[in-house]
Design brief:
The protein is globular. The protein is α/β, with parallel strands linked by helices.
Length: 341
């Protein structure tokens, strides 16, 4: 599928991702790699090249290469520990029992220290690096439609990657643009999905609303669980777009026959934070799915009657007053059962 960030066909359907996943990060018999001390600088030795048989390389060797490029460009002094390079995010993200051997273009680097020159070199010279993002203060996205949005900076390459999440009915694949959406990594189980599945079992909803969808994880899990009608919404443009995109990615395993996009990525980006809900995408098949971009406080204007179950996955969960106010308003305007994952 066409990627709106880099223009390549780097967004792959879920069936392909899942079929390749079992051996994607495993070493072949010819693979070799050293384990480095993450709390010390890498030793002054040559790093291993990618395996000539399978093309993979142990992640510590890759990080040592990244460290030396950043030190060479002055982003690191050369005395910092290897861990100072930044945070590695693999593509696709999945729970692993041991450190991965990385194929080409499978690593997205998030770093506070990296500069533009080093980022360009990393994408050009380190074959495993998919993209480089400079992080900052805060978490990408929005906490409220009245607050200023936060975003990191993509310096080089592409920052679109996927995570694989297990559900009781089978896995789902969730793509996201990592510089503008928060990290949500699978560690073998997802507490939010477990909470959703419990609520679905308790209420048997005909219609489920994910009012703060992010990249669509709960909405996809609800479709996978067999909920007949699912409505996803987020005020942040990137969340609404990638929720819609992920319907297409998972179309076959969700039993979706057709996904219709009503707003393009560029349309949504021109209005990054929406108040009045607009329809972004619709899908039909074994069930019906709608995706909106809008403020959850105004979503009731486009919702059908008889909502059975809603998830309010608010950023401000630590603020009980805000949670109570939003929940009370939702109960009055929409009704049905509510849970906060």
């Amino acid at each position: 599928m066409h990627c709106p960030v880099c223009g390549d066909d780097c967004v792959t359907d879920a069936r392909t991702i899942l079929a390749e996943l079992p051996g994607r990060f495993a070493p072949c018999p010819d693979c070799m790699g050293l384990v480095y001390d993450k709390q010390s600088p890498p030793p002054d030795i040559d790093t291993a090249e990618p395996c000539p048989s399978c093309g993979r390389r142990f992640i510590d060797e890759v990080f040592a290469d990244i460290y030396r490029v950043m030190a060479g460009e002055g982003d690191l002094a050369g005395t910092e520990p290897l861990a100072a390079v930044g945070t590695p995010l693999i593509h696709p993200g999945t729970a692993m029992r041991r450190a991965p051997y990385l194929p080409r273009r499978s690593l997205l680097l998030l770093s506070r220290s990296v500069g533009e020159r080093a980022a360009a070199r990393l994408v050009g010279e380190v074959p495993e690096v998919r993209g480089v993002v400079r992080t900052g203060v805060g978490t990408p996205g929005i906490t409220d439609t009245d607050a200023a949005p936060q975003a990191y900076t993509l310096l080089s390459g592409c920052d679109v990657r996927a995570d694989v999440f297990p559900t009781r009915r089978g896995p789902i694949v969730v793509y996201k643009q990592q510089s503008v959406l928060h990290i949500e990594f699978s560690r073998g189980q997802n507490e939010k999905i477990l909470s959703l599945e419990q609520e679905i079992g308790r209420h048997r909803p005909g219609t489920f609303v994910d009012a703060c969808s992010g990249a669509g994880t709960l909405a996809l899990a609800a479709v996978r669980a067999g909920v007949p009608r699912v409505i996803a919404n987020d005020a942040w443009y990137a969340a609404a777009f990638w929720t819609a995109c992920n319907l297409q990615v998972n179309r076959e395993i969700l039993g979706i026959e057709e996904v219709t996009m009503h707003r393009s990525y560029d349309d949504l980006r021109r209005r990054p934070v929406a108040r009045d809900p607009v329809r972004v995408a619709t899908a039909a098949g074994r069930g019906e799915v709608e995706v909106y971009q809008g403020d959850l406080r105004d979503l009731a204007t486009v919702l059908p009657p008889g909502i059975n179950l809603s998830a309010l996955d608010l950023f401000e969960k630590a603020d009980p007053g805000k949670v109570e106010a939003v929940t009370r308003a939702w109960r009055t305007r929409v009704g049905g059962a509510i849970f906060i994952p």
